[in-house]
Amino acid sequence: MRVWFNRTFSSVYTAIKLIREADTGNRFHLIHSNPNPHSPAGRVAHEFFVEPTGLDKPAYNDWCLQFCIEHKIDIFIPGRGATLLALEIDRFAAIGTRIQSVATHDALSTIHDKGRFYADTVLEGAPVAEFAPFETLAQFDAAYATLRARHPVLCVKPSSSVFGLGFAVLDEARSSAALLIEGVEYHTGLQDFRRGLGELGTVRTMLLMEFLDGHEYSVDCVGDNGRLVAAIARKKPMQAGRGQLIDMRADILAATAELARIYGLNGMFNAQFREGAGKLRLLEINPRMSGGIGMACVAGPNLPYISLCGFADGFDTVTVPPVRDGIRVTELASAAELA
User: Fold this and answer.
1) pTM of the complete model
2) Which residues of the chain are in CATH 3.40.50.20 domains?
3) Which residue, of 56, 74, 118, 148, has the fewest CB within 10 Å?
4) Where are the alpha helices (DSSP H) in 156-267?
């Protein structure tokens, strides 16, 4: 069975490696493509191809369709272009390729827009932090006056972003220069931020939020069209270098199962939570494998393999091993020559 992973995040290297380790019968022939000819995932895939660059979204979809025809792809697990490709499932099915889409186009569009996602998602066990969108200095000032009256520390982040890019805690006492010199990460001076907003005029939609100062939890999951099949929750340390703890909290698993149901999640996805004022809060859904997928799978279930087998054969044929709750995990870097 020929399976294609197109350009996506670096976690695809780990996913392909984990699938090949579990696939002792060599049932799956794994193909990866990337515009970077030195993509590390190309080292572990059975075949690697260089993707074209400069294509707009419709043209890229057409290229994907032609790729599936030429290479006789049975299952396509998209990274790049996944939201629009969710509209193309029938078109690909007509040429014999099944797309494993994490959700529908509408659900993915909502998930990628945190402002919409926060406004639409009602999760009793893990409500979202209080927030307000803004695009101008006047909107920011009005939101700040309201939220600051209820929360001691506030933060900002873009409504659409990945890897935490654009996130910053607003510091009322220190300037951005002082924070930089002191080496304080992910903080910016409040007055400097306001000054910048005034200079820019209108910015892309940003969110002002209460800052959650507790532990963060990352939950790596496999879904079956809204049913949570497997989940492994990792508790991140407050200080770096201490690994992560597998912590299968019942409330986190229940909230994750509810998210899967609400958004009809399918295949590999990741849910993020954080504690604030002693309460569990929802941060986001990542409709893809997380960067920590390898650490999660140390705890037992091989999530990428479970996801692929379940999609190929039906999840009633899949056995999910028990999770080794309470173990501490980490990632070890190793050097390698690139071909």
Assistant:
1) 0.94
2) 2-101
3) 56
4) 176-182, 190-200, 250-263
